[in-house]
Write a structure and sequence with these properties.
327 residues; alpha/beta; Quinone Oxidoreductase, Chain A, domain 1; Rossmann fold; quinone reductase (NADPH) activity; Alcohol dehydrogenase zinc-binding domain protein; mRNA 3'-UTR AU-rich region binding; NADPH binding; GroES-like_sf
């Protein structure tokens, strides 16, 4: 067995070119940790935010927080896993862009035999994000109308399907016809092509002037105004990403004028802060995948050494569904 592996390393923040493929020692898990040999690694917008320095890292650094594979070694005191278990994680320490990664055992979950490891890698971070957005940030009620921006993206496709199981009217925004078809096939009742339709006008027409109970916005700067204007009285804007850039400050009075609105900026990490919360979130997700209520769309895969190309595709809005790196 070789004792080195390929891994992505960064010595500074910047464009895709700062990611280098290097050979490093295979790490040994310390107390409470496990070494997972990856079958697949998930690509997420948080990786881009960390690579560019929007979310700072300390260098030299690895990148990536999500992967799935087989437990190859366990550290002292680990009882949650045995060697040979199928495991996945979505909130590990950075460094998932590698052939193997050491993760805190309390941050990884077992993957049911019925779920392929590639699916698990595609769905942990995005799927648990959809879980806490649909089930816990805002309690949607049957008959509510909701708006999901980037409905054909990695989180969007899963979130729309999850919301559909709760009996709500799902309105999604997308950039083109291909993405519109994908969104419709994954639980979107109404699709708005934001490049050529006015989002607020369409939302008002669909909801007979009422607006939405909640808007899920991962786009950020470009959609803030439309998101706030699409809400009904006492509605909630859930701002959970900055694909178009960080959201500018919002005056509290603006929320009052919009109809006593709520604004939250949640992160998955705060909603799976304990191992119990993590198990509950992943368990709910795996159950919906196994029941067939959620179909996981792996839009594209890239070998590890083409990671720069993968980042360019994700940042350039050229991807649909989940994107995987295959070590």
């Amino acid at each position: 067995m070789t004792h080195t592996m390929r891994a992505i390393r960064l010595s500074k923040a910047g464009g895709p070119e700062v990611m280098e493929v290097v050979a490093v020692e295979v790490p040994t898990p310390g107390p409470g940790h496990v070494l997972i040999r990856h079958e697949a690694v998930g690509l997420n917008f948080i990786d881009i935010y960390q690579r560019t320095g929007l979310y700072p890292l300390s260098y030299p650094s690895g990148l990536g927080r999500e992967g799935a594979g087989i437990v190859e070694a366990i550290g002292e005191g680990v009882t949650r896993f045995s060697v040979g278990d199928r495991a996945a994680y979505g909130t590990g320490d950075v460094g998932a862009y590698a052939e193997a990664h050491v993760v805190d055992a309390g941050r990884a979950v077992r993957v049911p035999a019925a779920i392929p490891l590639t699916t698990a890698a595609a769905v942990m971070l995005k799927g648990m994000t959809a879980e806490f957005l649909a089930r816990r940030v805002f309690h949607v009620k049957q008959g509510d109308a909701v708006l999901v921006h980037a409905a054909a993206g990695g989180v969007g496709l899963i979130l729309c399907q999850w919301l559909q199981t709760l009996g709500v009217t799902v309105i999604g925004t997308v950039g083109d016809e291909h993405k519109a078809d994908l969104a419709r096939a994954h639980g979107c009742d109404h699709v708005i092509l934001y490049r050529r339709e006015d989002i607020v006008d369409r939302v008002k027409a669909i909801t007979h002037g009422d607006g939405c109970a909640v808007v899920y916005d991962s786009v950020g700067k470009d959609t803030l105004d439309a998101s706030l204007a699409s809400l009904r009285r006492r509605g909630m804007l859930v701002s959970f990403g900055n694909a178009s850039g960080p959201v500018p400050p919002v005056e509290p009075l603006r929320l009052s004028r919009g109809g006593s609105l709520f604004l939250t900026r949640p992160t998955l990490f705060d909603y799976v802060a304990t191992t119990e919360e993590l198990d509950d979130s992943a368990g709910a997700l795996f159950a919906l995948i196994q029941s067939g209520a959620i179909k996981v769309e792996i839009g594209q895969t890239f070998p590890l050494d083409r990671v720069r190309e993968a980042h360019e595709a994700l940042a350039g809005r050229q991807t649909t569904g989940s994107t995987l790196l295959i070590p």
